[in-house]
Queue: 3 jobs
Job 1
Amino acid sequence: MIPFQNESNKDRLERIIRNEILPKLESIVGAQLSEFVDLLLQSSKLKNFAKDQYLEESRSFEDGKLFYIISGIARTFYYDTSSDKPIISRIWKKHDVIFDVNSFQNEEERVETVQMLEEGELLTIDYYSLKNLLNTFPKMISCVLCLQAEREKYAMFYQRLLKLSVEDRVRLYLNDNPTLSNRISQDCIATHLGVSRCKFSNAYALYKQHRNRQLA
């Protein structure tokens, strides 16, 4: 999002919440009181992050945050001890909400690390601020449950994706994320799809040939 000229950080935060976030919340729980909007504004912060910067690492649930991506791309990953390599569980884009619901609700240690893949701006809410927000407005827990359902839906899609051929994995994933390969390392996408860089390159070449024929 490009800031308006002479717009303060506080004004930008309010504009983003009212124009982008509030309509999504209200589509789930209905119109909100001004008191909720005021507390959401007090609980939220806008932060800029550099490429490769960690947003949070695997540790206590109390260190966890909710992130709303205004611009940029991020990944969540964890280390698989059996293979001694990182497993990228998801690549996140603009308007995505990164939030470990299980850790938050069950007060369990987080196992995933969140890292930027390109520079970007995010809205953040820390653990205690979010806890206070939900305690004050308990019907908003419906939004948290929707985030959990969305995560589970993506997990099911991802598991089905990994059972497909390399060519089909690359084709289906890039059809849903057509500009991703131009913005981040293809090694990262290959790792997320569970294929070698060489196999990904071959499948990506076939994907581009098919796309070019469609556009011709």
Job 2
Amino acid sequence: MNTVSADIPVQYLTSNKTMSVNCIDDEGVDDYVLITMFGAPWVDYGIDDLPNGERVHPPYSYGYHSAYTVTSRLTVNNQAYYATLFNRDVELGLFSWKGAKRPFHSDVFTINKAVVNETRQPVLYHTFLCEDAAGKTLAVEVFSLTNPESIYLLEDQLIIK
């Protein structure tokens, strides 16, 4: 059995690709094969958090905002399954007020939502996974709720595999 492998540069992981192979078997018969490979899900995500509550100062710990307002916009393009993950019990309802959405081609989701910090966490994690047959795209946003004046972004990653 013969195999073909290639390293695909990161900037092309979300693009559909076509591979053409010209093969000649043991009997000299020439075969041409065209293979379409779909890209990993394409995601454009932006989220802003603003304080929307009083400042809580627990003993022996970081202070945090008791509430915040989340404004978010997610644009996705590809036939994939989408789900939010690892959010420390804070569900933002990104996919039309649900935590996940079955495969669809493309859509835009927006939220503008006030959230009470019932978990009393000094950070907000917002992570979601987009997965299709070609790969996975993981978006990770981590916000600090400890600054008295504002909420600021600690981590913003888009991981494509």
Job 3
Amino acid sequence: MIRDRFHKMFSLEVMHTYYINDICKGLFYNPTKSTESIIKRFSLKLNLTTKGFDFYTDTKKSITSFLNYITKVTGEESFNFNAITVDSQFYQFTDLPINQISVINYNSSSNEVVSDTTVKVLKPEFTPTIEANKLFRLSVKFQDLIKSDENKNSPIYKIEFTARDTQWKYFILNNTNQNLGDLSIKCKSEVEFEGPIEVTLQNGEKAQLFSSEKQLLPLSEIPKYNFDLISTIKKNGVNRNKILFKGLPNPDPNIIKIDTNHTETIVVSLMYVYV
């Protein structure tokens, strides 16, 4: 096994609140050319894990002596990696700058320690770019690894992504021409929808609109909310409620729009429900 022969220099963990168990999916990690050259020359190992990767050396020297030697013979002072995502929706469901292509830079020297001295949450720095093929760059400084080695630990660098909060809008369309009565959206959570109000869609169809308005809700891989569309019809002087649509859909990250008609720009999730 790799652990029997190699010594772990550091680990990377990438978390995301959109996914189940907060473990980010669909990422690939590519060493830069200079780091790839070091990996081959000094027999280093990058071992993928469910959360990211572990980085190993089989040196018989101390980590400090080993890294100082690499700097001496190569002039390099850090290990550098580029991460890409294969999830086409990543930029939609992740809380990243709106309408701006940028690469996120993470540096091992820019972090805050959490829980213990080994776990270090890296702080993002956004750099505008015309490239859309990299999600983030990671730079792990040799000096930071040397400091950890002096403290007899192997650092865990953690990157944290957050699911995007959006305003949810349900457009209820009556395609049966039946009497729907008074419509409302009910749920067991504390979420409240405003509406309905009648609106005309771009294709000319009439719809009843419900909106979460100022209450922005996070997107998620697995639905976190269970909303029911309720019809209330008065019969013989008594209001009778009926579940017209049980379990309204949660948003598709691809069906969003940018709304600038607020003090702050917000992202809106659009959902069309035919009853």
